[in-house]
């Protein structure tokens, strides 16, 4: 039982005549309210795992179960719809829309979701305050520091109150001090909202602050 369950997940890439086996029967359970660190060397398959768990990529075998519903093998349209509701994703680089303000970037997924401008803007402001950058609401991404940009990206990822937050090196582009502050804000938000989070990081200090740590080896997920 878990919010996010991976069952025998297989993922292979064809590289010319060679088959790269990235996930080979990966098993994982993310429970409600849990923060789990994913720590593994570059090339081990962290992004592949997060993209598959986040329904961006379809597993070649096995399945991804979200809140009891088998979702991994559904078609692209269905996976996209579920992803928009249930999954928040944060990348190493913020991917914010450059021509929009911080506030508007956080409003966007909510407007797509059908909320009114007032509702979306109220919640976006609340999230910006929570991330301690309320004063930056009207700034565009290029007018924000790297740490501020990631705070906005994190707020945007949780704007639709997803079930699960997946993050791929969310502080990987920041200096250690900034990374620690951004992680403080991320952690507070996750704890406050009772979200479950799986966070890939190379930062061992941050990994130690999570509830438990897993790695990827030979296409399988193991605790360490
Ligand atoms: P990590 O995030 O741990 O660095 P990735 O999941 O990005 O690892 O990649 C794992 C391996 O799979 C790498 O060797 C990468 O080059 C390869 N890979 C990832 N995506 C693809 C793809 N779409 N096609 C072919 N190879 C891929
Ligand atoms: P990230 O920083 O998000 O991990 P990556 O560089 O690992 O980004 O991958 C970016 C995109 O390129 C992903 O969709 C991944 O699947 C794809 N990709 C990664 N490695 C390869 C590869 N060797 N061949 C083809 N696509 C790849």
From TrEMBL:
GO molecular function, a single term: transmembrane transporter activity
Domain ABC transporter as annotated: residue spans: 4-224
Keywords: ATP-binding, Cell inner membrane, Cell membrane, Membrane, Nucleotide-binding, Translocase, Transport
Biological process per Gene Ontology, one example term: lipoprotein localization to outer membrane
One family name in Pfam for this protein: ABC_tran
Record carries keyword Transmembrane helix: no
Gene Ontology, cellular component aspect: membrane protein complex; plasma membrane
PANTHER family cross-referenced by the UniProt entry: IMPORT ATP-BINDING PROTEIN (PTHR24220), LIPOPROTEIN-RELEASING SYSTEM ATP-BINDING PROTEIN LOLD (PTHR24220:SF689)
Family: Belongs to the ABC transporter superfamily. Macrolide exporter (TC 3.A.1.122) family.
Protein name listed in UniProt: ABC transporter ATP-binding protein
Species for this entry: Nitratireductor mangrovi
The organism's taxonomic lineage, starting at the top: Bacteria, Pseudomonadati, Pseudomonadota, Alphaproteobacteria, Hyphomicrobiales
């Amino acid at each position: 039982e878990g919010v996010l369950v991976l069952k025998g997940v297989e993922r292979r890439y064809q590289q010319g005549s060679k088959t790269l086996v990235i996930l080979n029967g990966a098993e994982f359970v993310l429970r409600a309210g849990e923060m789990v660190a994913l720590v593994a060397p570059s090339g081990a398959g962290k992004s592949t795992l997060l993209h598959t768990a986040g329904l961006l990529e379809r597993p070649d075998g096995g399945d991804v179960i979200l809140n009891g519903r088998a979702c991994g093998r559904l078609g692209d349209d269905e996976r996209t719809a579920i992803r928009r509701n249930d999954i928040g994703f944060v990348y190493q680089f913020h991917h914010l829309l450059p021509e929009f303000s911080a506030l508007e970037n956080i409003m966007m997924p909510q407007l797509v979701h059908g909320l009114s401008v007032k509702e979306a803007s109220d919640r976006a402001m609340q999230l910006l305050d929570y991330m301690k950058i309320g004063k930056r609401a009207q700034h565009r991404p290029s007018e924000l520091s790297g740490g501020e940009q990631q705070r906005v990206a994190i707020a945007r990822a949780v704007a639709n109150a997803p079930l699960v937050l997946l993050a791929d090196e969310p502080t990987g582009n920041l200096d250690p001090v900034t990374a620690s502050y951004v992680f403080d804000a991320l952690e507070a938000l996750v704890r406050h909202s009772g979200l479950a989070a799986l966070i890939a990081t190379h930062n061992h200090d941050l990994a130690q602050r999570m509830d438990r740590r897993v790695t990827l080896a030979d296409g399988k997920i193991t605790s360490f």
